[in-house]
Amino acid sequence: MEKIVIGWIRQMSHLGWTRVRALMMTVAVLLTLAACGSRGDMPWPLEPGFAALIRVGGETYEMEVARVDGLLAHLEYSWKGQVIATSDVYHGLFAVSGHDEKGEFRHDIDLGEIDGLFPLAIGHTARLEGTAFTSAHPGSGRLLASFEVLRREAVRVGDHRFETFVLRVVSRLVFADGTSEQVIRTIYYAPRLGLPVRMRFESGGRTVHWQMIAVERRPRGRANRLGTVAI
Questions:
Q1: Per-residue b/e over 56-76, b at no fewer than 16 CB within 10 Å?
Q2: Angle between helices 2-11 and 17-39 (to 10 degrees)
Q3: Span between the terminal Cα atoms of the chain, in Å
Q4: For residue range 159-216, what is the model confidence (pLDDT) as tens digits?
Q5: For the domain bounded by 50-217, which CATH number is listed?
Q6: 171 vs 50: CA distance, rounded Å
Q7: Torsion-angle region of 194 (φ positive above 0: left; ψ -120 to 50: alpha; else: beta)
Q8: What's the rounded Cα separation, in Å, for the pair 69 and 76?
Q9: Smallest Cα–Cα separation from 201: which of 107, 95, 73, 121?
Q10: Environment class of 102 (CB within 10 Å of its CB; exposed 0-12, middle 13-18, buried 19+)
Q11: 187 exposed, middle or buried (CB, 10 Å; 0-12, 13-18, 19+)?
């Protein structure tokens, strides 16, 4: 890129020193932006076509961003080419609806409470309360959740290194039939992606690890498999 820019300046030198000096200042800014991009610390816009391989409990799944509506991303999880779960995730942190092996679910909450966490910083907290609907339980349930930003930590995903914020999210569901369940999630959230790159789930004495192991950004309209295009 430097050679192209230098050649451009030489071709424009007949404009006079004042204009060339202004042009050189502009070029300096362009080179700085190019250098920033090469360091890999620029954000990737979360858009349809972003995909990742996810390892969960020894199995590998494919996650793809099917569509994005503002801060809400619709994610699809596939296994052996079949979509097995979907999730509408707000800010990449909290699922507000979708379906999984337990059936369909929906959480009616005040999303503004999650907005209060951003921009993320150590010590930021948030609490929310709402109503949960799941096909596994008749009627509705009460949802309580708390968020706390604990620390910063770097996480590698393949050849990529992501700076993350580590959050602790405690969710508790209480249903009308008296049953309840609590899930504690430790989330390694990468602002550069707008998604977690690692999570740990703890519930009922069981721990499940969720790990992003490869990423890909697909050109729109082209269906190719993970690993064929490097970011």
A1: beeeebbbbbbebeebebbbb
A2: 170
A3: 19
A4: 899 999 999 999 999 988 888 999 999 999 999 999 999 999 999 999 999 999 999 8
A5: 2.40.360
A6: 27
A7: left
A8: 15
A9: 95
A10: exposed
A11: buried
